[in-house]
Design goal:
TIM Barrel; single chain; 10 strands
Length: about 280
C-alpha cells in the first residue's frame, strides 16, 4: 500500500474504504470484507449513522490497532461549539470502540467553525485525534482557517473526480501543506463514468476497468481516495491499482474531461447552506 505523510508526520494510506450511504445493517459485513481485502484506511462520519457498525467490524477483525487508520467526522455544532465538539468526539469514540481517531474531520464549513476547530486542536494535543482536518472547505474558507489558527488542517476532503478535478484547490492545498482527499471519486457513476469511452479505452490498454483508471488517476495526483462498495469482488478490484501507471498522455486525456462544476451540490448555494447549517444529528 502506498502512503502519504500528513503535515504533522502521520502516515495515511492513499487508498481506503468509505462507508457513506452504506446502511448500518450492511456496514459491519462490508467493513469486514474490506479489511479482509487488505484495506486499512476506513472512512466514516457521525452523520452516516454507521460508526457503531464500523467499530464492531474493527473489533472482530483482530487487526492490531496500529495497523488501522480510522477517520470519522464532526457534524455542525451549535455554540458553545467547544463543549459540543468534545461531546461529539467522545460519542464517536464510544460508538467506534476506540481510544483515539487517526483523523478527525470537520464535516462542513458551517456552524461555529472556530469553536469547533479549537476543540479539535485540543483533542489533537491530547492524542484523542492523531490528525485533524476539514471536509468541503473551498479555498477561501480553508485559507481563513489556516491563517487564523495554530494548527493547519492536515487534510481537506472534497468532491473530486474526472468531471470536477479541483486543480486550483489541489495546488493551493499543496502550497499550504494540506493533503487533498477525494470524496465521490467515481462521481457515483454519473456521466456514465463506469462505461465512459475514454476511460474504458485507457483501461483496456492496461487490462483494467474504467473504475481502476479513475483510482489510478487520483493516486498519481497524490490524492487520497476512499471508494465504496458492498461487493467483495469490487473491493478487491479497487485495491488492484498499484501494478500499472497512466502515461502523461492518458493523464492529459482525463484532464480534458474536467467541467469545473460540481455534480452534486454547491456549498455556496444559499439553500444548501441553510439546510446544512440547520441540520442536527439526533443523540
Amino acid at each position: 500500500m502506498q502512503h502519504v505523510t500528513l503535515n504533522n508526520g502521520v502516515r495515511m494510506p492513499i487508498l481506503g474504504f468509505g462507508v457513506y450511504q452504506i446502511p448500518p445493517e450492511q456496514t459491519e459485513q462490508a467493513v469486514t470484507d474490506a479489511l479482509a481485502a487488505g484495506y486499512r484506511l476506513l472512512d466514516t462520519a457521525a452523520s452516516y449513522g454507521n460508526e457503531e457498525a464500523v467499530g464492531h467490524a474493527v473489533k472482530a477483525s483482530g487487526i492490531p490497532r496500529e495497523e488501522l487508520f480510522v477517520t470519522t467526522k464532526l457534524w455542525v455544532q451549535d455554540a458553545p461549539a467547544q463543549d459540543n465538539t468534545r461531546r461529539a468526539l467522545e460519542t464517536s469514540l464510544t460508538k467506534l470502540g476506540l481510544d483515539h481517531i487517526d483523523l478527525y474531520l470537520m464535516h462542513q464549513p458551517f456552524g461555529d467553525v472556530y469553536g469547533q476547530w479549537r476543540a479539535m486542536e485540543a483533542a489533537n494535543r491530547e492524542g484523542l485525534a492523531k490528525a485533524i482536518g476539514v471536509a468541503n472547505f473551498h479555498p477561501d474558507r480553508l485559507l481563513d482557517l489556516v491563517f487564523n489558527n495554530e494548527i493547519t488542517p492536515a487534510v481537506n476532503q472534497i468532491e473530486t473526480h474526472p468531471f470536477f478535478q479541483r486543480t486550483t484547490d489541489h495546488d493551493l492545498m499543496r502550497e499550504h501543506g494540506v493533503q487533498h482527499q477525494a470524496w465521490g471519486g467515481f462521481a457515483e457513476g454519473r456521466n456514465n463514468l463506469f462505461t465512459h469511452p475514454d476511460l474504458t479505452e485507457m483501461g483496456e490498454a492496461h487490462g483494467k476497468s474504467a473504475a481502476q483508471v479513475v483510482l489510478r488517476w487520483l493516486i498519481q495526483r497524490d490524492i487520497v481516495t476512499i471508494p465504496k462498495s458492498v461487493s467483495p469482488d469490487r473491493m478487491a478490484q479497487n485495491m488492484d491499482v498499484f501494478d500499472f501507471s497512466l502515461t502523461d498522455g492518458q493523464m492529459a486525456r482525463i484532464a480534458a474531461l474536467d467541467t469545473g462544476t460540481t455534480l452534486f451540490f454547491d456549498h455556496h448555494d444559499p439553500e444548501m447552506v441553510t439546510w446544512l447549517s440547520k441540520r442536527r444529528l439526533a443523540g
